[in-house]
């Protein structure tokens, strides 16, 4: 379970996140929806512990800064951060070693197949197209099977097949009881997958929309988003 309480992040004079509160239970998908510059990537980086911030963030009751919490967490960044001189296969083997994974080979093969990288395994990071880099970055994030996984704009640059596979991955993570947070600025990319959507604007959570609330009104998520 992820709990973000009163998180504020300033980059000098810019308030990128202003008193952010959000909770995602295990087995749930939370969406951060907002336009460019709304503060989505910043809160994801705060949750991962990459940035200093004011406030509190816990993962299954532990501070996100603890080793216990870090073991639970996975991250797929907005811009893939790959090693130009490692091949596709070497990237995944590197992750497996870094996380001391056992019994990962079959899952690695499944991921390569799902994201159509099985024929690219000998290609170096800088030989991949942008979409292929994004697919490899997703595979790297998934390989350690994190309990909490954060995806920052994961659909960007993906072809329709990969988008379909990624949506299936979201469903599977939910079924397995994982806690998933996905940032996006494209409302139609998230369809029916989410449990709670946090609409962000100017660094704040402008609205929290639960799926059950949508059923009780005539308004769609899109209507609510454009009203804000
Ligand atoms: P996008 O959809 O374009 O990725 P976002 O919602 O993820 O946007 P952030 O990247 O979190 O938004 O940026 C929030 C605010 O913080 C913006 O005003 C941005 O200009 C500012 N910002 C982000 N990173 C930095 C930085 N390293 N230094 C200064 N300001 C920053």
UniProtKB/TrEMBL annotation:
Q: Which UniProt keywords apply?
A: ATP-binding, Nucleotide-binding, Transport
| An example Gene Ontology molecular-function term | ATP binding
Q: State the CDD domains in the record.
A: ABC_DR_subfamily_A
Q: Which Gene3D superfamilies does the record associate with it? A: P-loop containing nucleotide triphosphate hydrolases (3.40.50.300)
Q: Which residues form the ABC transporter domain?
A: 2-227
Judging by the UniProt lineage, the source's domain of life is: Bacteria
In its UniProt entry, what is this protein called? Answer: ABC transporter ATP-binding protein
